[in-house]
Amino acid sequence: MAAKTYGANFGKHVYSGDIRDWLKGELPETADVVIGGPPCQGFSALGKQDPLDPRNLLWREYVHALERIRPTAFVIENVPQFLRSPQFDDLQHEVRPGGGLADYEIEPFILNSVDYGVPQARRRVFVIGRKRGLPALGRPTATTARSTVRDAFNGLTGPVSVTTLPEDRSLTRGPYLTRELHITRNPTDRSLERYRAIPPGGNRRDLPDRLSSPGWRKHLSGSGDVMGRLWLDRPSVTIRTEFFKPEKGRYLHPTEDRPITHLEAARLQGFPDDFQWFGSKTEIAKQIGNAVPVGLARVIGEHLLPWLRNSSQ
After folding, report:
1. Comparing C-alpha atoms, which of 140, 133, 137, 129 is closest to residue 73?
2. Same domain, yes or no, for 106 and 232?
3. DSSP structure class, residue 91
4. Do 60 and 193 reside in the same domain of the chain?
5. Residue-level pLDDT at 85
6. pLDDT tens, 8-36?
7. Is residue 52 part of a domain?
8. Interhelix angle for 86-94 vs 59-69, to 10°?
9. What is the DSSP secondary-structure string of 27-73?
10. What percent of the chain has pLDDT over 90?
């Protein structure tokens, strides 16, 4: 479904399958830039951080692609924990003499999307590689203006009662426009009571005992974002794949007694209202939550483009 979404918006030139199978086929002869986001589940602070997770090794397949295509530059995007992983140590060995990427140098940066005009706090590592001898790129310049949840939700009105995707495209599972994703959950009566009990900016710690869970009552420390409301005049927390579940984080609407909708999450990620999506509610939520914020992706592109032009002169 993610490949169909990509194809609908950017062109049907997607290989939907295992990168190891893709590498067995015919690759482009060359490219100016190769961009990749190897799986981060084995590194993420939200996961088990299992050093034996087989997905941790898929970054090597990305390196194999770089060895064959030999781009002028490459970009790796991942969670900040990647910089402390054995895999990053291995990457550093690859760019040393004798390594598969010995003719490259790398610059790692931890960037927060909120520093680049995105209405969301999201810290990610970007490792930018360049052919050895070319000038360094340096860190992208942060913007001075900050965007907020209010900015992202501008023009949206409630209440929201629709809980399903448009039925006229259920057989094809899309495409659905972002503006058609203003859909909510079917909460239980108890969940509704909990939502109503959370004050502006509040979270699970504001619940009376009768609405709290045994686990929440037992653990007074730890994450304060669970069952939390977003603030209108601040950037949002990181939009993850289960943003429609307030029990997973600060995903309650700032003023309405409901979780944020797929449309609202997509706007916080910077997707335009006419972007096209394929999949079920859950599949589309995964695509929204796993994406690099559009504004941050744009910053990386705008950072690379003039450098590429100058490097080719």
Report:
1. 129
2. no
3. H
4. no
5. 85
6. 999 989 999 999 999 999 998 889 999 99
7. yes
8. 10
9. PPS--SEEEE----TTT-TTS---TT-GGGGGHHHHHHHHHHH--SE
10. 78
In a domain, 170, yes or no: yes
Q: How confident is the model at residue 209 (pLDDT cuts 50, 70, 90)?
A: very high
- Is 219 within a domain? yes
H/E stretch holding 282: helix 281-290
Alpha-carbon 208 to chain mean position: 34
DSSP string of 180-212, one letter each residue: G--------HHHHHHHHHPPTT--GGGS-TTTS
What is the predicted pLDDT for the residue at 59? Answer: 82
In terms of Cα–Cα distance, which of 150, 83, 147 is closest to 115?
147
Do residue 122 and residue 42 come from a single domain?
Answer: yes
Interatomic CA distance for residues 249 and 127, integer angstroms: 28
Amino acid at 53: D
Question: Which residue range(s) make up the domain with 161?
Answer: 149-290
Number of domains present in the structure of the chain: 2
Query: What b-and-e string marks burial along 166-185, b requiring 16 or more CB atoms within 10 Å of the CB?
Result: eeeeeeebbbbebebbbbbe
Q: Which residues contact 107 (CB under 8 A, 6 or more apart)?
A: 127, 128, 129, 130, 136, 137, 138
Q: Pairing mode, if any, of strands 73-78 and 33-36?
A: parallel
Q: What tokens appear for 131 in the block?
A: 């052919």
How many angstroms separate the Cα of 203 from the Cα of each of 116, 154, 227, 258?
27, 24, 5, 13
Intra-chain end-to-end CA distance of the chain, in Å: 40
| More confidently predicted of 10 and 87 | 10
Query: Do the strands 176-177 and 276-277 form a parallel or antiparallel pair, or are they unpaired?
Result: antiparallel
- Domain membership flag for residue 9: no
